[in-house]
Amino acid sequence: DYKGALEALNDAEQAADGEPQNLAEISYQRGNLYFPLGDIEACLASHQAALDHARGAGLPGLEARAYGGMGDAWYMRGRTGTAFEAFDRCIELAGERDDSWLRASYLCMRGVARFNDLVGS
């Protein structure tokens, strides 16, 4: 139930009391909910908010995840160059943090996106 999940995140945001780490996580999850709903504008805005909160709090792991979400959204919008830049930043930050799962996920996503870009040319 996406509507219920978004409402729960709104409640969590109110309870977060301005804590940047919590706001980054809430914004990231909100972006993840908007993506399958096809609301790419809200997805991008949510992931941008997650990125801003993560940067402000010095949380490179959340920053990497936000870049990944933004890359997915940009790709869905057909902005492959911008998507590749976001994927690359996600991969770079994940590598710096030894987050092999996130790094592998976005190496794969970047490869699939590149393949689709070449095939569609």
Structure description:
By secondary structure, this protein is an all-alpha fold. It has one domain: Serine Threonine Protein Phosphatase 5, Tetratricopeptide repeat (Alpha Horseshoe). It contains 6 helices and no strands. It has helices at 2-15, 20-37, 40-57, 60-76, 80-96, 100-119. The longest helix is centred in the last third of the chain and has 20 residues, at 100-119. The radius of gyration is 14 Å and the shape is globular. The chain starts with a helix and ends with a helix.
The number of distinct structural domains comes to 1
CATH architecture: Alpha Horseshoe
Helical residue percent? over 70%
Ends distance:
37 Å
Give the class-level CATH name: Mainly Alpha
Question: What characterizes the major β-sheet?
Answer: none
CATH 4th-level superfamily: Tetratricopeptide repeat domain
Strand content: under 5%
Please name the CATH topology.
Answer: Serine Threonine Protein Phosphatase 5, Tetratricopeptide repeat
- Count every helix, treating DSSP H or I runs of 4 or more residues as helices: 6
State Rg: 14 Å
Q: What are the secondary-structure elements, in order, as H or E?
A: HHHHHH
**Low-confidence runs of at least 5 consecutive residues:** none
- Shape category: globular
Q: Say how many strands there are.
A: 0
In round numbers, the mean pLDDT is 95
Structural class: mainly alpha
